[in-house]
Amino acid sequence: MTAKNFDNLTPDVLISEVETALNRPMTGLAAPLPSYINRVYELETADRKRVIAKFYRPGRWNRKAVEEEHRFVLDCAADDIPVIAPMELPQGGTLASTEDGILFTIFPKRFGREIEIIDDESWRRLGMVVARMHLAGARSEAPDRTLLDPRATTANQLEHLLEGRYISPMYEQQFERVVRELLEEIDPMFEDIEYIRIHADLHRANILERPDEGLMVIDFDDMMEGPPVQDLWLLLPEHVHKCRRELDLLLDGYTSLRNFEYNTIRLIEPLRAMRIIYFLDWCSTQIDDFRFQHNFPNWGNDAFWRRETADLQHQLELIREYSSN
After folding, report:
1. Would you state the pLDDT for residue 290?
2. Measured in whole angstroms, how far is the alpha carbon of residue 102 from the centre of its chain?
3. What percent of the chain has pLDDT over 70?
4. 103 located within any domain
5. Is residue 181 situated within a structural domain?
6. Of 13, 84, 175, 191, which is the most exposed, with the fewest CB atoms less than 10 Å away?
7. Which residue, of 91, 110, 129, is where some domain finishes?
8. Do 234 and 313 fall within a single domain?
């Protein structure tokens, strides 16, 4: 299974694969949907039902890891948490593969609009949805997914960036120094805290409002095991010291359904820094992709690494400031 096989997923090929997986004829509709990593298409069955086919980029997740993503979503669905669960396929399970071994799954199409947070009750409502998802997440484990931990994950991402020589030589030493200092600073903060299955990419665009149905959580592709606070801080409009009121409202809703470790609020800025490094590492694996080059034409030049190094230095200073208070 290679990137070339993935690039050869033309509309005709993927329609044929979905027809086989569903054991149903399809029309010729194949509308691509935005996705930086995977190939995602809206398709149509012969009886005019729309579905979403998601073909997983080779090399990112193995079969067990994708199955753990699906299991988490299905666990949420079983608890009546509004998610879009993958379809059960006629041959069993929710995961199929092409002749070239590319994994894919199929979802029913659902409509919705991005959530609008208009008042205090909107924040509480969000917190309750996250808590319900975490109640499901805490009931099982996902050993094949990423562990959101500085030593288990972020340190390896740094080594990958260094070994692959992705960092501009002008800023390589400075970038490495900042990240290693950051890791030394934050590593003790992650001791003796709760780790559960989390969404891990729960920004507002991944929560939709469905008329007469409420909120729906989408896109579990980055699902990990990590501290629950990760699924709260991405919803905030600013750094935590600038939006403590919004965080308190989120937690008011969250704690009405599930306990929360308040000492993990101190992890928010470390997690923000870890997310920067996570994204840099992900980008380094995409640089040969034409669509990535089109979307990120300046990725990797000197100015780019100067900005990223400065951003991480700023995060380190914020973390140290909060730790001393």
Report:
1. 74
2. 20
3. 98
4. yes
5. yes
6. 191
7. 110
8. yes
CATH assignment of the domain containing 195: 1.20.1270.170
Helices 268-284 and 172-186, interaxial angle, to 10°? 140
CA–centroid distance for 291 within its chain: 19
Residue 4 has pLDDT above 70, yes or no: no
Whether 195 and 289 share a structural domain: yes
Q: What is the mean pLDDT of the chain?
A: 92
Does 211 reside within a domain? yes
* Residue in the structure block whose two tokens are 């399809």: 26
Per the document, the length of the chain is 325
- Domain span at residue 193 reads 141-247+260-324
**pLDDT tens string 172-181:** 999 999 999 9
Task: Report, as an integer, the average pLDDT of 229-234.
Answer: 97
Q: Are strands 50-55 and 26-33 parallel, antiparallel or unpaired?
A: unpaired
Would you state the structure tokens that stand for residue 125, as one six-digit string? 């409502």
- Give domain status of residue 116, yes or no: no
At residue 310, what is the residue type?
A
In three-state secondary structure terms, 291 is helix
CATH code where residue 57 lies: 3.30.200.20
Rg (CA), the chain: 21
Q: What was the pLDDT predicted at 1?
A: 46
Digit-coded pLDDT (tens) for 105-124? 999 998 888 888 889 999 99
State how far the Cα of 168 lies from the Cα of 195, in Å rounded to an integer. 35
